């Protein structure tokens, strides 16, 4: 890749996190008043869902599909568990999730070179949701890996069921995209990736019946079937208009970003060997 191509991959991570962080700070301070005016806004929440896994796996498209459902609200890059850990009350975090989703929808759910609006559906307009959650997978994985009882300590008013969505893609594509976006070496991106793999395994051990694996490649190949799986897992009714609109959001082919970098034979073997230790990566290889 030449310099121009590499610069095209550079992530705007600092700017995104800075903007979301400033907005979250304001929303946290407005939460008490908002909840006092409407104390039952989140009384119908039955599921609190967090994504776990790795950046650049397809979380944005999956969370955008879920946020399009009339009974669901999903924030983008909020780091909801970070706010819970900092002592923000769960209902206030729910308020922050809803405000984040409203803003993201108002901006066309645009992120870097991609946008994830679902026309004619309910993005940013969750009303009184039964499912609420956050798309930020990396930090959720690290926080739960380091503090497995974080959610157990949270004082939820209505005790929602905890659920986790784990979006998986070919590790070579994931590692290459991580390296491109952070302008780092493949070896460094590989270490980050497998650190998060280990974190996912710890979350699964703590919540063995509450994690849904979604393969990005299967979502691309059969979006309707995977969207139905998501709805069933979260207790959401999936009707035909919603299914049709959301299936249209999914790109027709999975990007094979592994081809954007040069891989040594030793590095390919190392990734394949380490991937073999994680059941959720079964069947993946550099050439498939």
From TrEMBL:
InterPro entries recorded for this chain?
A: P-loop_NTPase, TPST-like
> One short Pfam family name for this protein?
Sulfotransfer_3
Keyword vocabulary terms for this entry? Transferase
The UniProt record lists the keyword Transmembrane helix: no
Keyword Repeat in annotation: no
Protein name in the entry: Sulfotransferase
Species of origin: Caulobacter segnis
């Amino acid at each position: 890749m030449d310099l121009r191509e590499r610069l095209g991959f550079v992530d705007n991570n600092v700017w995104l996190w800075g903007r979301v962080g400033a907005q979250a700070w304001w929303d946290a301070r407005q939460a008490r008043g908002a909840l006092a005016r409407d104390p039952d806004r989140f009384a119908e929440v039955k599921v609190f869902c967090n994504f776990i896994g790795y950046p650049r796996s397809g979380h944005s498209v999956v969370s955008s599909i879920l946020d399009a459902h009339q009974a669901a609200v999903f924030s983008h890059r909020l780091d909801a568990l970070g706010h819970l850990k900092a002592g923000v009350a769960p209902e206030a975090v729910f308020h922050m999730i809803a405000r984040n989703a409203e803003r993201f929808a108002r901006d066309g759910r645009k992120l870097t070179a991609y946008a994830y609006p679902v026309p004619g559906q309910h993005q940013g307009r969750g009303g009184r949701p039964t499912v609420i959650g956050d798309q930020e997978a990396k930090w959720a994985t690290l926080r739960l890996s380091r503090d497995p009882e974080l959610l157990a300590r949270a004082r939820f008013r209505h005790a929602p069921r905890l659920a986790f969505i784990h979006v998986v893609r070919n590790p070579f594509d994931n590692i290459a995209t991580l390296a491109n976006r952070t302008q780092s070496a493949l070896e460094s991106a590989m270490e980050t990736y497998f650190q998060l793999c280990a974190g996912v395994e710890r979350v699964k051990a703590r919540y063995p019946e509450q994690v849904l694996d979604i393969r990005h490649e299967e979502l691309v190949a059969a979006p309707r079937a995977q969207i139905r799986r998501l709805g069933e897992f979260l207790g959401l009714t999936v009707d035909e208009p919603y299914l049709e609109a959301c299936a249209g959001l999914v790109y027709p082919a999975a990007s094979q970003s592994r081809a954007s970098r040069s891989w040594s034979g030793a590095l390919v073997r190392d990734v394949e060997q380490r991937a073999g230790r994680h059941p959720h990566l079964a069947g993946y290889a550099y050439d498939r």
